[in-house]
Design goal:
With 582 residues, the protein is α+β, with helices and mostly antiparallel strands. It is built from 18 helices and 18 strands. This is Blue-light-activated histidine kinase.
């Protein structure tokens, strides 16, 4: 076994080894002299036991070999003395000599083994001491060069030791910090927090931390996370407290900025009546703000399964939430869904945001807005606009109705002064006009054949004017029939006031054809008047012009054309089959 450094130093010192050998020789010589004199004065009664103390001393001073050699020398000297003085060596002497040799060997081996064990213990202790010294060296290196401030303080708060970083933070030199108390570095408004830290250490807590403001040497303050650590034996505060100081000024500033931005965002969302939401399409988990759950009519919750929303989302809109697809990149997400709240009201909700992948998980996130009031307002505005248009059209129709009736009265002559027949003819014409008026006053579901709409409008004049109506059978449905009847009514009214219907020799030709051989193609409608007109060729822009499309798009169809002259009028219009019905 290798010897420890101290043992090696003892073995390598010649003066020490010389003194040890000299002491061993003196003990051996004294023992031999004592044995010789004992053999002379005591005689055969003397034993070899007086050699045992000498063997023990020599085994302690020397190694195993010299101790065994000294034992054998003592036994030989004892036997020689007995042989010289008594002429013979008895069996008892031989037995004592053998026992002494065995005892000396045991003693020498025992001391040798003890010496080895002691050396091993010393080597282990030396290795542990070296490890402790290395650890302490590393600790000191880390303590001095750490990115955070470190210090040691006693239970009175006096700084015992500090590192370079703490000096840089506070602006004090290490010698100056050693003369200060920890309380001095803490802002006066935060010293209560320091007392709570110390109190926490006194309540069997290994460490305690808090965010406080520390003062620099120049009087300025900075935010730091102060952590105190201490071992607490038997509930008594230890004399050394480890202090860790982490400068969090920038982190604190960023946190405050984020908090302010969050407050502004929450205020903006609240003012805009918006809510935030997120859907994890992989796990089917929906999270949202309190306003989001309120819009859906559900109590607040941290999260819900996506399937739970099927109870409130309209079945026709449910695929808009559950449909997913593989995304190559971030895409926008913009849908509107209907929600049936527990109180029975239907609400329109807009979900706007984006779809993206985050950690290989497809998700949707964005904002939600309740569009119900906006939609109701839009519908009310549309209804009001439609009502206004209908009232304007009704007013215009009524304004035209009386001149038409007056013209009918003037146009119908009294046959052979037969007033009864005159009245019958006049009533028949007025009823025909009433039928057209009732058609135009009907709801949007009214429908009819194009031929019937034209004939019904011109029926009051069929017997007195030259009128021809021709064209294929075409059905018009819904609002298209109503709008087209208004166009024909306006053409007829204009013709009665200024054109062919107001001239006894006037002629009107109305026809329509398909633009191509395909029955599903567009329809070309033409209204042709011939006869003297009572107005110039200047087109007056008014409500009637708006209806037939002179001042813009017509009520139905497209590409209107109007040509007027002193001897007639020609109007054409194209009707799309998709626009007027199946």
């Amino acid at each position: 076994m290798p010897m420890n450094s101290q043992s090696r130093r003892s073995d390598s010192n010649p003066s020490v080894r010389l003194l040890t050998h000299l002491a061993s020789v003196l003990v051996l010589a004294a023992t031999l002299i004592f044995e010789t004199r004992a053999s002379v004065y005591i005689g055969e009664g003397s034993s070899f036991l007086e050699f045992i103390p000498a063997i023990i001393i020599i085994s302690y001073l020397e190694d195993r070999g010299p101790a065994l050699a000294a034992t054998i020398l003592m036994v030989a000297a004892g036997l020689l003395a007995r042989s010289t003085l008594h002429g013979q060596i008895s069996s008892e002497d031989w037995a004592r000599a053998i026992l002494l040799v065995v005892s000396g060997g045991v003693i020498a081996v025992t001391f040798h083994r003890l010496r080895q064990d002691l050396r091993e213990l010393l080597e282990v202790a030396e290795a542990r001491l070296a490890a402790v010294e290395a650890t302490e060296s590393r600790y000191r290196w880390a303590f001095e060069r750490a990115a955070m401030g470190f210090a040691n303080t006693n239970e009175k708060g006096e700084l015992l030791q500090s590192n370079r970083r703490l000096s840089e933070m506070t602006g004090y030199e290490e010698e100056e910090l050693a003369q200060l108390r920890l309380e001095t570095l803490v802002h006066p408004d935060d010293r209560d927090a320091l007392e709570q830290l110390l109190a926490g250490l006194g309540n069997d807590s290994a460490s305690f931390a808090s965010e406080v403001r520390l003062l620099r040497k120049n009087g300025s303050a900075f935010w730091a996370r102060l952590t105190l650590s201490s071992s607490v034996p038997d509930g008594v505060l230890s004399e050394s407290i480890f202090v860790v100081v982490d400068d969090i000024s920038e982190r604190r500033a960023v946190h405050e900025a984020l908090r302010a931005q969050k407050e502004w965002l929450d205020l903006a969302l609240s003012a805009g009546r918006l809510a935030t939401w997120r859907i994890d399409l992989k796990d089917g988990i929906v999270t949202g703000s309190g306003t989001f759950w309120d819009i859906l009519g559900l109590p607040p919750a941290a999260s819900r399964r996506l399937e739970e929303l099927s109870a409130v989302v309209h079945p026709a809109d449910w695929p808009k939430l559950v449909a997913s697809r593989k995304l190559a990149s971030v895409t926008n997400y913009d849908v509107e869904i209907r929600v049936r709240r527990p109180d029975g009201h239907i609400r329109w909700v807009a979900l706007r945001g984006r779809e993206e992948k985050y950690d290989d998980r497809l998700q949707r996130l964005g904002v939600a807005a309740d569009l119900t009031e906006r939609r109701q307002t839009t519908l009310l505005r549309a209804a009001a606009k439609k009502r206004e248009r209908i009232m304007l059209e009704q007013r215009h129709r009524f304004s035209n109705l009386f001149p038409v009736i007056t013209a009918l009265v003037k146009m119908v002559n009294v046959p052979e002064n037969n007033v009864a027949r005159y009245k019958e003819t006049l009533i028949d014409r007025i009823r025909s006009l009433e039928a057209t008026h009732l058609l135009l006053s009907g709801n949007s579901s009214a429908s009819g054949m194009l031929h019937d709409l034209v004939v019904q409008e011109l029926q009051p004049y069929m017997g007195t004017r030259d009128i021809s109506v021709s064209g294929p059978s075409v059905a018009m449905s819904g609002g298209a029939a109503e709008s087209f009847a208004m166009i024909v009514h306006e053409l007829a009214t204009n013709s009665l006031k200024h054109g062919a219907l107001g001239d006894s020799k006037g002629r009107i030709e109305v026809n329509w054809t398909f633009a191509s051989e395909d029955a599903r193609s567009d329809i070309v409608f033409e209204w042709v008047e011939s006869g003297r007109r009572r107005t110039s060729k200047v087109v007056r822009h008014g409500f009637g012009s708006m209806i037939i499309g002179v001042d813009g798009a017509p009520l139905v169809g497209y590409s209107p054309k109007l040509e007027m002259s002193d001897h007639g009028l020609q109007y054409s219009l194209r009707l799309s089959r998709k626009e007027i019905g199946p």
